[in-house]
Amino acid sequence: MGHQPASHINLSLYPIQCDSPERDAIIAKVRRDLACDGCAVLKGFLTPEGIEALRLEADSVAETGHRSFSRTNAYFTKDDPTLPMDDPRRQYFDRSNAFIPADNFAKEGALRSVHDFNGFDFFIKDCLQQDKFYRYADPLADVIVNVADEGNGFPWHFDTNNFTVTLAIQNAEGGGAFEYAPGIREGGENFDEVKRVLDGTSDKVTVLELEPGDLQLFRGRYSLHRVAPLSGNRPRYVVIFSYVEEPDMVGSPERTEQLYGRTLPIHWERAGKRADTYID
Fold first, then answer.
1. Which of 87, 112, 170, 277 is paired with 232 by a 20 to 30 Å CA distance?
2. 127-164 as b/e: b if 16+ CB within 10 A
3. 5-269 has which fold?
4. Coil, strand or helix: which one is 217?
């Protein structure tokens, strides 16, 4: 059965499909929020029908998610014994959750009907004010669903992509708050402040409670962030749409293997073609 994105997106509240004063006002607010702390939330971006359609689709492919249990630092790098013990690059935390890779979502399915809705990419681009703006070309990661169960979470980390666009679909019964330290890596690694976030002494952390249907724009390349541990029997589903500043960009083979449990030839062909020099 085909999906109608116009019934999934709350176009009466967010008329993203055509130029209008209403659309301009939404974009202006998102830009202000992003400038303020690198995060903007559009409450109720999906209709109730849209939330249910995406939830059902996530349920139907949840078992294809790659579940991983590991200890990682904020940069997804290996331990470097030449660094001091209290260096943030040597602080490791348990990571346990699952990502449903992008190739599990059909072109005609509910999720891609939202992602491919005429005007969606242009709206995101206008919000982010990015001259260089491309969909992530990674066939396993352009649009994915993060699945997290009781006891799971995602420890402090930086994103590979400059911006991340996420859509909350289903919350766990408890926990799962989104916590972030806005922009602490703007202009440099800022290891001192990263260390304070990790040891709980930073005053720069914001706690955000997202509800199903909320669309979030986040500068995760520069803002350290985590998902707090979850509780209860209901899994947490969050869609992740990824956009980058360079065409044809894909994940590194190492990180792709870690997150999705497999790689494709394209990950090896394009390894090393990155737009910045930040540690992953």
1. 112
2. bbeeeebbbbbbebbbbbbbbbbbebbbbbbbbbbbbb
3. Jelly Rolls (2.60.120)
4. strand
Q: Which residues contact 145 (CB under 8 A, 6 or more apart)?
A: 58, 61, 62, 65, 99, 100, 105, 111, 169, 237, 238, 239, 240
The residues that bridge with 181 in the sheet, in sequence order, are 224
In contact, 264 and 140? CB cutoff 8 Å: yes
- The domain locations on the chain are 5-269
Report residue 1's pLDDT band, with 50, 70 and 90 as the boundaries. Answer: very low
37: its two tokens: 């702390």
Structure tokens at 178: 């989104």
List, for residues 159-193, the tens digit of each pLDDT value. Answer: 876 788 999 999 999 999 999 999 999 889 999 99
Query: To which H or E segment does residue 276 belong?
Result: none
Please report, in angstroms and rounded to a whole number, the separation of the first and last CA atoms in the chain.
40
For residue range 219-237, list pLDDT tens digits in order.
888 999 999 889 999 999 9
Q: 254: exposed, middle or buried (C-beta count within 10 Å: 0-12, 13-18, 19+)?
A: middle
Burial degree of 187 (CB within 10 A; 0-12, 13-18, 19+): exposed
* Model confidence, pTM: 0.86
Tokens at 74, concatenated: 């904020």
| pLDDT above 70 as % of the chain | 94
User: Which of 272, 205, 267, 213 is closest to 43 using CA atoms?
Assistant: 213
Phi, psi torsion values for 116, nearest 5 degrees? -95, 5
CA distance 123 to 131: 13
Structure token digits, residue 123: 């709206």
Pair 45, 10: CB distance under 8 Å = yes
